[in-house]
């Protein structure tokens, strides 16, 4: 069981290639009224919630930009470190296919922290805004002292997480009466409809989804032992995919990994619901609404007009 006095870290996954966003590095685009990027708000909320450290998972070639745009600034308020997600960072005995063009997904991103993160930690995406309640919930859960197989997940209401400009991928959750995750289904192409929301059913039609369903937005709380499980699982994933027609595109994804651990009874996942509205930049057309949302939060006093003084 983790010591309740352990420090807690926030791990921000920022190595992904945002191809749908268009030109530029979307994680480094200014959205707040004081020139803040989305990660500024996540770190600000994490500091207020009590996290002790932030770890950026980035590409090595972006390190200089990250330090200049956010790392050097927030380093005055919270301990800040970097780890690097690279395509060829694979377990012994495996070689990256020469045709591979992008990293191996969110599971490999977190695996990059192995050896660097030794305390309970929260995981988030760089380009998502989660709201301060979710950070408080996960920090308090992690700080309570948990067994090695204990995991938590921030559960967002599906209709609060959709884009007006196209389909999104969400991990749609099944939650039991005790607030434990029973299963998670990675669902692609979810769009708003007149009746709520829907996604392709795989047979050329659309299936309606319950807009009040809880979904994963890749905001998780893990014990440090999870990194060992990721390492073992990644080797199995590579065995299944290398040498097949999937080796160029297959991704080792956190929702799928956690779901597999649940089915194998290797993890217990507490779902921590939040009614905060998620927003982020999935498409270039999302930019104006995201900027307006941050401006409105500043007007309402949720955040100062300039986060870091």
Structural description of this entry:
The chain is α/β, with parallel strands linked by helices. The protein has a single domain (9-299), classed as Alpha-Beta Complex (Spore Coat Polysaccharide Biosynthesis Protein SpsA, Chain A). Helix content is 26%, strand content 26%. The protein has helices at 38-49, 63-74, 106-111, 132-143, 226-241, 254-263, 287-299; strands at residues 9-13, 53-58, 79-84, 121-125, 128-129, 150-157, 168-175, 181-193, 196-200, 206-209, 214-222, 268-274, 279-280. Strands 1, 2, 3, 4, 6, 7, 8, 9, 10, 11 and 12 form an 11-stranded mixed β-sheet that branches. The chain is globular and about 55 Å long.
CATH class, anyone?
Alpha Beta
Low-confidence stretches: 17-24
Number of helices: 7
CATH topology value: Spore Coat Polysaccharide Biosynthesis Protein SpsA, Chain A
- Count all strands and give the number: 13
Give the overall average pLDDT.
Answer: 90
Spatial gap, N to C terminus? 39 Å
The major pleated sheet works out as: 11 strands, mixed
Question: How many domain regions?
Answer: 1
Secondary-structure blueprint:
Layout: E1 9-13, H1 38-49, E2 53-58, H2 63-74, E3 79-84, H3 106-111, E4 121-125, E5 128-129, H4 132-143, E6 150-157, E7 168-175, E8 181-193, E9 196-200, E10 206-209, E11 214-222, H5 226-241, H6 254-263, E12 268-274, E13 279-280, H7 287-299
Parallel strand pairs: 1-2, 1-4, 2-3, 6-12
Antiparallel strand pairs: 4-11, 5-13, 6-11, 7-8, 7-11, 8-9, 9-10
Helix pairs in contact: 1-4
């Amino acid at each position: 069981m983790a010591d309740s006095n352990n420090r807690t870290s926030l791990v921000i996954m920022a190595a992904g290639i945002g191809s749908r966003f268009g030109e530029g590095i979307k994680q480094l685009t200014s959205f707040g009224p004081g020139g803040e990027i989305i990660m500024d708000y996540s770190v600000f909320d994490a500091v207020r919630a009590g996290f002790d450290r932030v770890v950026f998972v980035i590409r090595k070639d972006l390190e200089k930009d990250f330090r200049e745009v956010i790392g050097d600034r927030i380093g005055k308020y919270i301990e800040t470190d970097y780890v690097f997600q690279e395509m060829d960072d694979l377990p012994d005995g495996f070689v990256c296919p020469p045709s591979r063009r992008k990293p191996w997904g969110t599971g490999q991103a977190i695996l990059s922290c192995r050896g660097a993160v030794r305390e309970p930690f929260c995981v988030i995406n760089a380009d998502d805004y989660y709201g301060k309640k979710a950070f408080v919930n996960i920090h308090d859960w992690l700080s309570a002292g948990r067994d090695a197989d204990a995991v938590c997940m921030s559960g967002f209401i599906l209709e609060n997480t959709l884009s007006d400009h196209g389909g999104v991928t969400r991990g749609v959750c099944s939650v039991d009466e005790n607030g434990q995750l029973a299963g998670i289904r990675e669902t692609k192409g979810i769009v708003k409809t007149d009746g709520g929301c829907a996604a392709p059913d795989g047979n050329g039609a659309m299936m309606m989804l319950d807009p009040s369903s809880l979904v994963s937005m890749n905001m998780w709380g893990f014990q440090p032992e999870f990194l060992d499980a990721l390492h073992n699982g990644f080797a199995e994933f590579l065995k299944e995919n290398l040498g097949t027609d999937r080796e160029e595109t297959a991704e080792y994804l956190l929702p799928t990994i956690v779901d597999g651990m649940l089915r194998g009874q290797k993890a217990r996942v507490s779902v921590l619901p939040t009614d905060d509205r998620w927003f982020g930049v999935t498409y270039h057309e999302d930019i104006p609404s995201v900027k307006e949302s941050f401006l409105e939060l500043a007007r309402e006093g949720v955040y100062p007009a300039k986060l870091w003084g």
